[in-house]
Amino acid sequence: MSSINNALFNLRQMDDLAAQNTSIHQIHPLAKIIVTMVFLVTVVSYGKYSISGLLGLIIYPLVIMSLAELPVKVMLKRLLMLEPFVIGIGILSPFFDQNTLAIGSFTVSAGWVTFFSLFIKGSLTISAGLLLIATTGIDRVAEGLRMLKVPRILVLQILLTYRYVLVLIEELSRMTRAYFLRAPNDRGIRRSVWGSFTGQLLLRTYDRAQRIYVSMTLRGFRGEYHVGKTTPMGRRDWGYLIGWCLFFLLCRIIPLADIISYGMKGVLGL
Question: In total, how many domains does the chain have?
Fold first, then answer.
């Protein structure tokens, strides 16, 4: 029961974070979507043995999280929930890649280098997606996608799927609470009622989703989702977009490790 409530709380919490009014939240959703897309392309463009080049990109999620006043603990918790999938993808790399690489005076397994590269890439891409939702909200993300000429049916599918998950979890919470009120001595839902419980859950969520759709239709919904008046990008939005894109290009051309090593050599006079 607590896990269901936690899942519902986590989804609601992301909506609450997106409702804040910081400098990052005020940026046009189209600018944030394009920056996120450029960031993802930059991350995946690195080779499988590239680790130092990825370190500079860590600045992006750290700066956005700080300016958007997002709680580090909450965002880190969301990230750690998805890290097992990233580890599962890359954990077999040391077994398939038996080559060795020379890093300075050390020789390391190329498979482990590939694993850490995949781990960093996965963490960065997940962080970018979480930051986009936490600073924009699913409604404004849908608005930005439509401005990018993404097909209406695809945007609507993403939006309603997100909303249907909330409906599903809410109905599951109600049914679970009702079950334990009728069977307080049970530690869990008995196997004998799993089938009927799941069937009732789907019927209840479908019925509620149908009522929501009818309400949307009565309010003028005809397949196009609008959130207020669509406004064009301003100077600050263009500055945000161009500034981050130039930073990603710089990180792609000059790895952060090289910049730090050059700086250290200059300070030490080497």
Answer: 1
185, pLDDT greater than 90: no
In a domain, 256, yes or no: no
Instruction: Classify residue 168: in a domain, yes or no.
Output: yes
Residue 58: which domain range? 2-246
Residue 87, in any domain of the structure: yes
Res 264: pLDDT: 47
| pLDDT band per the 50, 70, 90 thresholds, residue 267 | very low
Rounded mean pLDDT, 31-58: 87
Q: Is residue 90 part of a domain?
A: yes
Phi, psi of 100 (to 5 degrees): -125, 150
**3-class secondary structure for the chain?**
CHHHHHHHHHHHHHHHHHCCCCCCCCCCHHHHHHHHHHHHHHHHCCCCCCCHHHHHHHHHHHHHHHHCCCCHHHHHHHHHHHHHHHHHHHCCHHHHCCCEEEECCEEEEHHHHHHHHHHHHHHHHHHHHHHHHHHHCHHHHHHHHHHCCCCHHHHHHHHHHHHHHHHHHHHHHHHHHHHHHHCCCCCCCCHHHHHHHHHHHHHHHHHHHHHHHHHHHHCCCCCCCCCCCCCCCCHHHHHHHHHHHHHHHHHHHCCHHHHHHHHHHHHHCC
- pLDDT at residue 36, as a whole number: 94
